[in-house]
Amino acid sequence: MIGLLWEGRGMRGHCFSFMLTVLFLGTLLTTFIWYMSNDSHVEPHRLPAPKKTEKRAPSVSSDSCNDCSHVEPHRLPAPKKTEKRAPSVSSDSCNDCSHVEPDKLPPQKKTEEKAPSVSSDNCKGCSKVINKVLEHYSQTWTKQEENYQKYRSQLHTRCRGSEKAILTQANTPVGSKILYDGEKQRFRKVTLELFRTFMKESPFSNKTWDTCAVVGNGGILTNSNCGNTIDSTQFVIRCNLPPLENEFKAHVGSKTDIVTANPSSYMKKFGGLQGQRRPFVDSLQKYGNSMMLLPAFSFAFSTPPCLRALYSVEDFEIPIQPVFLNPEYIQNLTDFWRSQGVREIRLSTGLVVTSLALEICTNVHLYGFWPFSHHPHGFQPLTHHYYDDRKANYFHSMPSEFKLLLQLHSQGVLRLHLGQCGEQ
């Protein structure tokens, strides 16, 4: 019985071992078959895509260049043509010459051969205009007493410059209103403090000077040698605080009895007189004890700087005498000259003081009044002023006013001086 049981257990062990062997061999066979089936289609040593890429021309990746992924480096027709051109200057070193070809400069050659040009005020065909002016001017000048007396009488009757050209305590009492001539709705009431700044009476009342020079600042005075002639007159009026010293004295003189001072002539240069005022005061010393005519009541914005100029003179006690131009006189002058054909919005300072001179002077001479960009004798270019070439912003038309002055010259009312002194 025990022998049978042991024999049965031995048979079961052999059977189990056989099954394990069959399972192992089956697994091994299945793995081999699967491996062979997948390996038959793979060629690890072939890389067709990389080989084709290597045969192309070198390209730039889209990560480093967004706009050049379609560029073929071996095709660059534009750069080759550029290299064949004449050498150019890079835009980094020359902002205006990047398109210049150094071997072709015909416009520049023509410009160099021309006479020096004048800026935006250059008059095209000005020789015709100037020759027409000279037709009237070249006539031998003689004073026409009848014409002179007519204008003097009309100016005295309608404008009364000898009494009303400047504000005085006699013509503008405390409590009266000063109407701005440039702003009709504005006025300034005369307080005791303002009244104190006025001259007691007009310095022109019941006075007449034999010869007067009204000196403008035109570039025509450059190298004119008119200084001695101007200084030889009895009364000299100058405009807008002009320079008189050093190289200018021989051509414009130095004698001064009235000098006008528009705020624009000193506000920017001297910081509006808000800080140090000594430089401004020192600049006035060359005018001696003359009257400084200030247009304090033409516009409201002109009043503060004109008052500061007056206070500066008082504080430093220099001999020049600040006086205020009377806006009523300016309005009367404007109405008078409009009746004579002048149609300007505002009269120039030069025409204002010339009108005053016709009232208070027997013989009136004008220097430095020439509104054109070329000299009447030789047509050489002129600067705007005899001391600089800075253009002014005019409310008025200088050529139109010059036409009036030329007419007065032709009628023998006043004498307009052009060119060098001693040649006329």
Descriptive account of the structure:
It is a single-pass type II membrane protein. This is Alpha-2,8-sialyltransferase 8E-like. GO terms for molecular function: alpha-N-acetylneuraminate alpha-2,8-sialyltransferase activity. Residues 44-123 are annotated as: Disordered. The structure is a single chain. By secondary structure, this protein is an alpha/beta fold. It has a domain at 212-416: Alpha-Beta Complex (sialyltransferase cstii, chain A), CATH 3.90.1480.20. It contains 15 helices and 9 strands. The chain has helices at residues 2-39, 48-55, 77-84, 106-113, 126-137, 145-158, 161-164, 192-196, 227-231, 249-252, 278-283, 303-316, 327-339, 349-360, 398-410, and strands at residues 177-179, 187-189, 209-215, 235-238, 258-260, 291-294, 321-324, 361-367, 415-416. The strands form 2 sheets. Strands 7-6-5-4-3-8-9 form a 7-stranded parallel β-sheet, sandwiched between helices. Strands 1-2 form a two-stranded antiparallel sheet. β3, α9 (227-231) and β4 form a beta-alpha-beta unit. α6 (145-158) packs across α14. It is elongated.
Features:
sialyltransferase cstii, chain A; two-stranded antiparallel ribbon; alpha/beta; 424 residues; glycoprotein; golgi apparatus; seven-stranded parallel sheet
